[in-house]
Amino acid sequence: MQLKKEIKTIMLKDPFQQFKEAQRVNEIRYCPLTGRSSRVLGLTLKEFAYTDRTAMIEESARACPFCPGLIDALTPKFTPPLKEQYTYGNARCFPNAFPYDENNAVVTITTEHYVPINGFTHQMLLEAFECALLFLSDVDSKKYPYQSINWNYMPVAGSSLVHPHLQIIASSTPSNYYSDILSNLNNNPNLFMDYLTTEKNLNERVIANPGDSTWVVAYAPMGQFDIIGILHESMPLHTCSGKLDSVLTYIRTTLQFLYSKKIDNFNMSFYSIAHNTSFLPHIRICPRVTFPPYATSEINYLQMLHNDSFTLLKPEVIAEEFSVFAREQL
Do 164 and 34 fall into the same domain? Predict the structure, then answer.
């Protein structure tokens, strides 16, 4: 597999160099899995600053429907043949009151109202994911094969509630992300393994190979950077119980890496397609940021109206920093 990119060279008279002619070089890269483009500007980003969310956290805790005092009264229940709710340790699964799809559940990760991004323990994530799998195992995977475990952490990432929770979907309809990959799988059933082989041979963006999965920084990121973990074995999510130890380890490591960068919002999706042996289950974790000094959104016309991602940061730089960080943590 050849990783595709286009080099864009821009000439301008630079006011920061007494209007001397200066060159800017950008790249348009294409995701090997989806084919979608991402613009890599390769700038040096100033360090993010921690945001004090104390007042918001305290205010939101007063009437949180996911906290122990209110969760029994304010969360929905599934209808038969599903159980009314599912529990695993401190995690609880129930229907999304405002569903996106036929089977859309919420899993509260912990009874604690707020957990800082570097505060999630392995046990917290294990209980939450296993609880999600209990729900998915009771959903007809032949009728609803597009299974995903998703996480919006904090408001910049689109979470309307502070209390940490996952959103689980089992759908009969593929999202655009699935459709893009399925189109490419039609042309190359070995797409995922070809991608992993290419990344391992280049060794420019690989973070770790714990044995049952490979973790890389995305070649064409969907955000400012984009961590991908690909399992080596095809399996629907509902059969993953007891098999996610290394996945949870690297989710935690990613969250701790984000904390080290003073980033405290992210989106995560764990994708699988039941009964499709060419599609390898995989995770993508993208930080969500605002840019100083005015808390400017990273979503602009490129993403919103042109469907193009962009990043200020080179994935290879993030990979080098993350690899060093991961070795120190593990």
Answer: no
CB 303 within 8 A of CB 239: no
274 in Cβ contact with 133 (< 8 Å): no
What's residue 46's pLDDT?
A: 66
Domain containing 145 equals: 54-329
With beta carbons less than 8 A apart as the criterion, state whether 278 and 189 touch: yes
Q: Is 16 domain-assigned?
A: yes
* Burial tier of 20 (Cβ tally within 10 Å: 0-12, 13-18, 19+): exposed
47-76 per-position pLDDT tens digit:
777 788 899 999 999 999 999 999 999 999
CB burial string 96-119: b at 16+ within 10 A, e below: beeeebebbbbbbbbeebbbebee
Average pLDDT of the chain?
Answer: 94
Q: Smallest Cα–Cα separation from 1: which of 193, 282, 233?
A: 193
* In a shared domain, residues 20 and 106: no
Q: Is residue 49 part of a domain?
A: no
